[in-house]
Specification:
Order of helices and strands: EEHEHEEEEEEEHHEEHEEHEE
Number of helices: 6
Mean pLDDT: 96
CATH architecture: 4-Layer Sandwich
CATH topology: CNF1/YfiH-like putative cysteine hydrolases
Helix content: 10-25%
Shape: globular
Number of strands: 16
Strand content: 25-35%
CATH class: Alpha Beta
Distance between the termini: 27 Å
Radius of gyration: 17 Å
CATH superfamily: CNF1/YfiH-like putative cysteine hydrolases
Number of domains: 1
């Protein structure tokens, strides 16, 4: 279940039940939360993070290059935009991990036993790069087990609206086979549901299907609430921010 809080950001039900865990996804109401090289570029980050009781100085974001690189981050990385990565992992409380999207899939990871968190940006290229599996592998380096991990997917473009060319369809079939509901045809047009191959790659490395929270929220259909690269104009385009953080024991 994906629900809007009284502070106007969205949360995932399974993640909301975890003590000491903070997470959320912004909406258009918070404005365009993109950054390129520095968190200081965007003052709008403050209002969104404040709604969650968080501070920008503790945020770590990614350059997001549509690749498969993942980095473990520590306190020393607070306030940084990490270059050339699309995934972050940490076991340190107080750090906020952030991912910006406008149709791509924002992924949150939480190990319920060792309390390790992760985040990833998954466009079609990242899914072909197996970004989901690579975050899991990085988390395993911190002595966790896949069956203990919860994974949540935030607002993204759904298969109903993601029309693609045949060559991209062929790449996904070659990589993942003929997965049910991954592809459908309508009046000579091809549509791709990115959540299906993402889910398949996660289950393949030991993630329990019941631990994957995948709400049916489409950025294209719900463009009044979320930004969409495909639907917005140059004047209306922006990106939402998804975040996850472990509370300090003293908080």
């Amino acid at each position: 279940m994906f629900r809007k809080t009284k502070n106007k950001y969205y949360v995932l039900e399974k993640f909301s039940r975890q003590p000491g865990l903070i997470h959320g996804f912004s909406t258009r109401q918070f404005g365009d939360l993109r950054v390129k090289k520095s968190l200081e570029e965007n003052d709008k980050l403050e209002s969104f993070l404040k709604a969650l009781g968080l501070e920008r100085k503790n945020l770590i974001m990614m350059e997001q290059v549509h690749g498969g690189k993942v980095k473990i981050v520590k306190d020393k990385n607070k306030g940084e935009v990490i270059k050339a990565v699309d995934g972050l992992v940490t076991d340190q409380p107080g750090i906020i991990l952030g991912v910006k999207v406008a149709d791509c899939l924002p992924l949150l990871f939480f190990d319920t036993q060792k309390r390790v968190i992760g985040i990833a940006h998954a466009g079609w290229e990242g899914i072909l790069e197996m970004i989901g599996q690579k975050v899991i592998k990085k988390m395993e380096a911190l002595d966790i087990y896949p069956q203990d991990i919860l994974i949540g997917v935030g607002p993204h473009i759904s298969g109903c609206c993601y029309e693609v060319q045949k060559d991209l369809i062929n790449k996904f079939v070659k990589k993942f086979g003929q997965l049910a509901e991954m592809i459908f045809e309508d009046h000579g047009k091809s549509f791709l549901n990115l959540s299906i191959p993402l889910k398949a790659q996660l289950i393949k490395v030991g993630i329990l299907e019941k631990n994957i929270e995948l709400p049916q929220v489409c950025t294209y259909c719900q463009n009044d609430e979320f930004f969409s690269y495909r639907k917005d104009s140059q004047e209306t385009y922006g990106e939402i921010l998804g975040v996850i953080s472990l509370k300090n024991k003293d908080d």
